[in-house]
Prior knowledge:
The complex is a heterodimer of chains A (250) and B (495). Chain A is α/β, with parallel strands linked by helices. Chain A has one domain (3-90, 149-249): 3-Layer(aba) Sandwich (Rossmann fold), CATH 3.40.50. Chain A has helices at 41-49, 73-78, 96-110, 118-131, 136-140, 149-163, 179-192, 206-211, 232-240, 243-249; strands at residues 3-12, 15-25, 30-34, 54-63, 66-67, 81-84, 91-95, 142-143, 167-171, 198-202, 216-221, 224-229. In chain A, strand 9, helix 7 (179-192) and strand 10 form a beta-alpha-beta unit. Chain B is α/β, with parallel strands linked by helices. Chain B has one domain (2-490). Chain B contains 15 helices and 18 strands. Chain B is globular, with a radius of gyration of 22 Å. The chains are: A alpha/beta (250), B alpha/beta (495).
Amino acid sequence: MLLEIKNLHVEIDGKKILNGLDLAIEQGKVHAIMGPNGSGKSTLAYVLAGKEDYAVTEGDILFNGESVLDLDPDERAARGLFLAFQYPIEIPGVATMTFLRTALNAQRKARGEGELSTPDFLKRVREAAGKLEINQDMLRRAVNVGFSGGEKKRNEILQMAMLEPRLAVLDETDSGLDIDALKIVSEGVNRLRSPERAFIVITHYQRLLDYIVPDVVHVLSRGRIVKTGGKELALELEASGYAQYQSEAA
Amino acid sequence: MPAVQETVEQVRRIDVDQYKYGFETPIESEKAPKGLSEDIVRFISEKKNEPQWMLDWRLDAYRRWLTMREPAWARVSYPKIDFQNIYYYAAPKKFKAPKSLDEVDPEILRTYEKLGIPLREQEILAGVVREDGSTPSKVAVDAVFDSVSVATTFKEELKKAGVIFMPISEALREHPELVRRYIGTVVPVTDNFYATLNSAVFSDGSFVYVPAGVRCPMELSTYFRINEKNTGQFERTLIIADKGSYVSYLEGCTAPQRDENQLHAAVVELITLDDAEIKYSTVQNWYPGDSEGRGGVYNFVTKRGDCRGRNAKISWTQVETGSAITWKYPSCILRGDNSRGEFYSIAISNGHQQVDSGTKMIHLGKNTTSRIISKGIAAGKSQNTYRGLVSAHRKATGARNFTNCDSLLVGDKCGAHTVPYIEARNSSAVFEHEATTSKISADMLFYCRQRGLSAEEATALVVNGFVKDVLQQLPMEFAVEAQKLISISLEGSVG
Ligand SMILES: Nc1ncnc2c1ncn2[C@@H]1O[C@H](COP(=O)(O)OP(=O)(O)OP(=O)(O)O)[C@@H](O)[C@H]1O
Ligand SMILES: [Mg+2]
């Protein structure tokens, strides 16, 4: 198992958000997580990434068989965990290119690998950016500053492509994307699908799952997984909504 | 770089307590006794073979200084300085120089390494004097810069252009009429306690004169860097840009500077005549003291530029990361019509450092403009104050100023303060002021760390973004080093 979440309980500011969540993900698989607003999807993503303020009161998260609860966010990142943010953060004054390079080299250093040479790095960024239709001008601009909603999401996928994680969590990467951008981003994700890499795709829309076809679909409600099925589950939800699951969980 | 690594490893093995670099005062014959008196002032002047008028000027300063008091308005606190317990004259190299990098503080070497300074250059910066007494800089510089030829080329090039660039002590002998005409005309002898003290006892510093119409053929930084001299604690610099000339000057060094003198009271005077421009950049990284803030340098500096002619321009750029206490307000007197003053500042304080810095823009001429961009970063238990004055004289019609003053707090044990003073004596003056104080954003740091940056790397990256507008004002080669320096200064500020 690449990721095993066991009986995870999480609180923030004393408020219980996740209540005994179980989830196991094998290498090479794509799991979609759907669920009503406020059910705890982003919380799960943040807890996986190690954001402070989130208190794990019970349970464990194993990544590659090792508990990551005591690891810092950067240590988790270096082990191959990536989070595409629902709301990407702006960093004024730091060029996107510089950010990508600093991040990549930091991860390589943490893994005991050497820094990438400037020509090698530039070649990789240009290639990855080209495929996502991100132009050079955007790479020179400060990270996410003044980017449109869709540009921010594409920038997240660019970072994912550069960092080549083992597990990528995409938190509503489809929201705010126009139809063309949705295709570009989905293709970007599909290109990275491989037997070694797994994805958690958090979304509200079954449409995304037409492009990124999941192996498993979960429904998250009130802080737990209340239903698991195949890709047809997404279609079902589209038709019937979450009402039945919310009452079931209650 | 394996060579550096090796040296650093070697140095690490040395017991740090044995290390005495920089703080020892061996007995020497060429030294005046401690304390300040008229005799000491005479002694200094005589040692330097100064003309009579210079001695008189110094004595006048000394007598006035006796009647003055230390300023107390800055937001800094320190034990009372005993001015009779300081040496005011000593032969330039009075400390025992390390014989090789093995004898240099490992902390300093680590910083050199992080700054990416080549091994040979590290020796110069650390002031190494070899066993055989060979001049360290020459040997080392030979290897790095092919110094003799480079320095000679520089000198010839400057000479050809007619630029005078030499120690002020030398200028007093070779160009006394120029020094006499300009010294003390921007920072008067009685300007303030420290400037007056400096006037009485100044040790040495740089003198630059750029003749009319000449664009100085190089950044004086390039030259300065490889000829770094021990100018002592009372440095005095005078730069004159004659009509239509231009010069860019960089003072200081990104490498950490240790000094046996705790008190530094420098004076810098800049003069630009019609259509002339001086760009003055500083990177200040004096010893900030130990983890408890003990032993750091007190930096009480008076820097002022006078735009004396029409369309004259003076631009100050500073990166302040060192010293236990920084008291510094590089200012511009905008006397000539249409003259322009600029102040770009990055002031970082960490540990127990105290910074009270800013600028004064004094608009006297018509249609004068000024611009102030200040970025203060407070980390650790430090206090960081921006203090700025913008004033427009009654006759300064059409004066304009834009001030942007941002403070960033790293952690919650530090303080950032903004103290702007604005005085507009005529109604046509337009002064714009923007100021922000923010805490370094947890979301930004988390975003960076999710991408693999450590807490310190993330902080440094965000801070570098915060100061980017100012970094851009530095000469290229220093911008890169300054960026690394910022990361280093913030070490230990998180977690
Ligand atoms: N700092 C906080 N303090 C208190 N409650 C919080 C905090 N952060 C999140 N919550 C609450 O936790 C719950 C889960 O939030 P989360 O962002 O994980 O939901 P989500 O499933 O991602 O929703 P959406 O579909 O709208 O993105 C919400 O009720 C939210 O208000
Ligand atoms: Mg969410």
